[in-house]
Specification:
By secondary structure, the protein is an alpha+beta fold. The protein has helices at residues 3-19, 67-80, 85-99, 109-112, 125-142, and strands spanning 32-38, 43-52, 55-64, 149-150. The longest helix has 18 residues, at 125-142. Residues 38, 41, 43, 65-66, 68-69, 130 line the site of zinc ion.
């Protein structure tokens, strides 16, 4: 597939997730609830996790922000649901490497799925914080941080 086609496909994934975000709801019985805030852009979300043993049984989020931050939170929620804490942390590491332009050479595009849509963000440093906000919030929530996190 030519690079520009791939690029527009990825853009479509972001636009589609922004329009129809997955797991976009308050989770009343969440085990972990954590807020994440990106003051540069005004993205502000709460991430909810339901944890059973080592498994993240359910993930949801609520809040508002730009298209990239919302689509990224949506993709994060679909990818992390049902994974172990360790697998979720690994996905966080991969996402972080992807949007900061240091993709792991061994990354298999099928394996990272819709996450790949955010690779282009690495060209826009101001957008990296938008794209990684939900992932950073997830990471902090898995480490049982209680205080709201901020990208600044
Ligand atoms: Zn943003």
């Amino acid at each position: 597939m030519p690079a520009d086609e791939l690029r527009s496909l990825y853009q479509e994934i972001i636009l589609e997730h922004n329009k129809n975000p997955r797991n976009f709801r308050v989770m009343a019985d969440a085990d972990v609830t954590l807020e994440g805030y990106n003051p540069l852009c005004g993205d502000h979300y709460t991430v909810y996790l339901k944890i059973e043993g080592e498994v993240v049984k359910d993930v949801s989020f609520k809040g508002s922000g730009c298209a990239i931050s919302k689509a990224s939170a949506s993709v994060m929620s679909t990818m992390v649901k049902g994974k172990t804490r360790q697998e979720a942390e690994r996905l966080f590491d991969r996402f972080h490497a992807l949007v900061t332009g240091k993709p792991d050479q061994s990354v298999n595009l099928d394996e990272i799925g819709s996450m790949a849509a955010f690779a282009g963000v690495s060209e826009f440093p101001a957008r990296v914080k938008c794209a990684s906000l939900a992932w950073h919030t997830l990471h902090a929530a898995l480490e049982n941080k209680q205080e709201a996190i901020t990208t600044e």
